Amino acid sequence: MLVWRRLPRPIRYLGCAVFVTAMLGLAMANAKADNVEVALDQAQIMRLPAGVATIVIGNPLIADGSLQAGNLLVVTGKGYGTTNLMALDRSGRVLMDKSVTVMGPRNGDLVTVYKGVDRESYSCSPRCSPRVTTLGDAPAYFGNVLGQTTARSGAAAAAR
Question: For the whole prediction, is pTM greater than 0.70?
Answer without folding.
Answer: no
